[in-house]
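Notes from hallway chat w/ T.B., transcribed later so I don't forget. T.B. wanted the structure written out for a chain they're using in a teaching module, and asked if we could keep both sequence and structure tokens in one place. Agreed to drop them here.
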Amino acid sequence: MLPKSERVSSIVLLGLADDLVPELERVLSDERHAVYSRPFPAPSLLLKLIDELHAEIVFCAAEPTQYTRLLEALKERKPSVRLVVVSQRPEVSEWLETLEAGAWDYCAPPFEPARVRWILEGALKSRPASTQHLNLSRTSPFAPAPL
């Protein structure tokens, strides 16, 4: 694990429900990341927003039309940016669909610091976004966070 002083990354929360943002922002800020929360932009502005905020990881709402559009744009123009899909009510089928679509990971509240840290560290160490990273044997989002 990196010392906190070396962990600063730019993370964007896109289109998340208002009740999810404060808790996730708090956990991410506690880990010393720069966190920006924005509504989901028009498709033509997606990459511009990600560029302007120097995003390394994007947390996006579990809305298939939004995250698939974002995944397509990232694959084509920003393959190093990781996408984590955030659901209000986690479902195994939704988790599998998001991973199969190419998302790096999937999470839901409560946002436990250990689980969020695990997701972030894996995303930051990983190779460019593609379906090659898909590993359905990864820990389920319904299991306790690794310590």
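Follow-up for T.B.: The chain has one domain: 4-128. Might be a good example for the class.
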